[in-house]
Amino acid sequence: xxxxxxxxxxxxxxxxxxxxxxxxxxxxxxxxxxxxxxxxxxxxxxxxxxxxxxxxxxxxxxxxxxxxxxxxxxxxxxxxxxxxxxxxxxxxxxxxxxxxxxxxxxxxxxxxxxxxxxxxxxxxxxxxxxxxxxxxxxxxxxxxxxxxxxxxxxxxxxxxxxxxxxxxxxxxxxxxxxxxxxxxxxxxxxxxxxxxxxxxxxxxxxxxxxxxxxxxxxxxxxxxxxxxxxxxxxxxxxxxxxxxxxxxxxxxxxxxxxxxxxxxxxxxxxxxxxxxxxxxxxxxxxxxxxxxxxxxxxxxxxxxxxxxxxxxxxxxxxxxxxxxxxxxxxxxxxxxxxxx
Length: 340
Prior knowledge:
Layout: H1 9-22, E1 28-34, E2 40-45, E3 51-55, H2 64-75, E4 83-87, E5 92-96, H3 103-106, H4 112-127, H5 140-158, H6 165-184, E6 187-190, E7 199-201, H7 206-209, E8 211-213, E9 220-223, H8 226-232, H9 241-257, H10 265-292, H11 303-313, H12 321-339
Helix pairs in contact: 4-9, 5-6, 5-10, 6-10, 6-12, 8-10, 10-11
């Protein structure tokens, strides 16, 4: 249901600002999209050209980090949405309308090779940008906080699992190994959600016309394998491992040619696997938190995808065995019971 601007003060403020920014007294707004945070996006109607209004309530989601990273990426050659007007104090931005379909909605078995190559084009531009000195780092503290989302929100809150001291110690050892592996990787600018849902095809042929990058405001300086893992092991669509292996090899060759500091391919594949375990656990925890804290339950449907990702990786690494054993002995029976 659309908010009524007669009764919703924020909706009325958003509409009035849009009409003033466009000099279009008859402009109307319809919902374009909403993300997992507090930002919302609105498409203009009754205007010569369609535009997007980003509404980022200042008391909930400061728009300045988004603008800062947008400007950084654009200066580095990454295609990002153009800003047509802004009111930072009130949290409103007027953006170009890039259309209604993300890469997630257009990619399929037949066009995936070409579209992922276009995505790599943008990723290499992004990774070539030197992270500003004051940009947050994907440091030990951040990596650990993210891993503990799995403990707190998925194991504890969602499944009701209380870990005994010995199990917790074994899990902490796995977490430390994952953290150490992440910190040992070469560091670049990291988007943190570089996945098809956050890439927008441009023009009629995305492979030829390229892609724009969205949802970049949480960028950090961190492990070089992180974003490419996000791209190929997405939250909302899965691909056969053989195809992922080919795309990783293609990325690795292109990144080396672009001068990025990648290790040899076998080590890089391990880096992708291990940072993937860290991300998969984090996302499972976030999806549980969205359900229990924020009332956004639709994300839980994709939790099994992440356990499938873990199932494909954990057996290859004995160092991560305690995590695999915990999932097999404690988590999987509860998930099976919930489905029954």
